[in-house]
Amino acid sequence: MQLIDNPSGNYRFLTGIAPYSAGVTALPGHEIVRAVLAHPLPWREGFARMERHLNELGRPRAALCAVELRSPAPFTFAGFAAFNGEYQTHLAQWGLLLDGRNPVARTNVAPAVNPPAEPSLYAFSYTVPTASAGEPRTFIVAGAGDLRDQADLSPTAIVRPGDTSAAAMREKAAAVLNVMQERLSGLGMAWADVGGVGVYTVQPLHSLLEVELLPSLHEATKCGIHWHYSRPPIAGLEFEMDLRGVRVEERVGTGE
After folding, report:
1. pTM for this predicted structure
2. What is the extent of the structural domain holding 142?
């Protein structure tokens, strides 16, 4: 992974794969703000709402640095690839790709209860100028599921496929935690900088908390864990996480 400057967006991104980067951190003089929609919108409508919000703040499209999506159900691997193609084309039409690379981080999960009817925008993050000199850098670590290689979107990469035993779930969680650590380090951040931990699974979490999650989060245990009763975006995956360290979170209305 490489950490690359995106000057037009006022952030750096950690290279990932074509549909999304592995994480982002604000450049000096800027910070990342996370905005949660009052109600998820079909993702293209969500992008239009996002653009209105950025325009109201005098921020360019390029300020968009992270996206959180919600899907009706987990995709097949082929379906996920097809969706990613449409999504990446939309980012390209927005002019967001940088020398062919996608700088925008992403988390995409499927709620187990009250899922949307179609892939929808749940939240987004963007950069703004800040006068808060000396404050810790803000960042987003993209979601990662229980794959042995995050670049290998195929069934053979799943950790302990088809197994949701306690031992298998510990192995899955450990693999994802390793990815979180790698991405944090790649962004130049540490667990002490984390202010939000997202966990996405429908499997029992209690034993994982005591054995894998909390011991591995180190100083990030101060902020607890936000458990979303959701599945990762691809059928066969059972555990996903993301991280963030932002100072400002806001709620964005979805009405006209």
Report:
1. 0.94
2. 3-252
